Amino acid sequence: MRDVSHHPIFQALQKIIHDAADVIMEIYQRADLGIEQKSDHSPVTAADIAAHRTILAGLNAMAPDVPVLSEEGVVPFEERSQWPLLWIVDPLDGTKEFIKRNGEFSINIALVENGVPILGMVYLPTTSEGYFGVTQSWRDLPLGAVKWQGHEVESINVRKPNTPLIAMTSRSHGPSLPVELKDELKARYQSVREIPKGSSIKACRIAEGVADLHLRRGPTSEWDTAAQQAIVEAAGGMLVSPKGLPFRYNQRETLLNGHFFVSGPEIAPNVMAWYQQKADEEE
């Protein structure tokens, strides 16, 4: 990837996501996180709302012609179905981890065109790590993926798995790999190490080449996956359904995703074969 650090779009998005991180971390230090329950019984905090407002204002100023779909600003399908280009935002991915104060939460911003995530940015406020990926050029952005921390910006790519194979598992949603799949991976890669993390951190670790696989079998929404999918794909990996199909966005009334996994291209056939075997056994 060409040096993206001086590109105005990267700089504008980076400022927006840093500003959102600042408001999140200010609330994170408070004794009262302003926790409430949404209609689906999932938690929302004052940080979710404050970050949403910060990101919405920033995106509207940067690209006023591009509408925004946010977890904290859901739009009816009748309206958003008319949007060929839109931002999909999770102002605070990992609200449960935020409430637990374990630091494993992120901010996700994706640009989606005709269902395809063409740009993604994820930022981890507690570690100041940021990830950015472009799969289709927009406003002359170069293709590829980078990670930044402070002023250092480096290109990233998924890796060829070795021993031990490292699987990122969910902190709060079914943390372990299925035993049968783990045994198959052990037979191929000798050993498997599982590391639990929250939010989009798992996919970002795969994109930067320090982990190999994440299997998600619990519910997620489009704002959870759009940004990380763009970053992983830009880094040479894949976020796909059990049949190997990449997710598409803003194409249905529901915003819920099905099961998926994240990996480099080498491991994917093993995972898809395991899913197919499970499907055959259930018939």
Can you walk me through this structure?
The structure is a single chain. This protein is an alpha+beta fold and 283 residues long. It folds into two domains: 148 residues, Fructose-1,6-Bisphosphatase, subunit A, domain 1 (Fructose-1,6-Bisphosphatase, Chain A, domain 1, 2-Layer Sandwich); 118 residues, D-Maltodextrin-Binding Protein, domain 2 (3-Layer(aba) Sandwich). 33% of the residues lie in helices and 25% in strands. The chain contains eight helices and 14 strands. It has a seven-stranded mixed beta sheet, sandwiched between helices. The chain has a five-stranded mixed beta sheet with strand order 11-10-12-14-13. Strands 1-2 form a two-stranded antiparallel sheet. A hairpin with a 5-residue loop joins strand 1 and strand 2. Helix 6 packs parallel to helix 7. The relative contact order is 0.14.
Strand-helix topology:
Elements: H1 8-28, E1 36-37, E2 43-44, H2 46-62, E3 68-70, H3 77-80, E4 85-93, H4 95-100, E5 106-113, E6 116-124, E7 129-134, E8 144-149, E9 152-155, E10 165-170, H5 179-189, E11 192-197, H6 201-207, E12 213-216, H7 222-234, E13 238-240, E14 260-263, H8 268-282
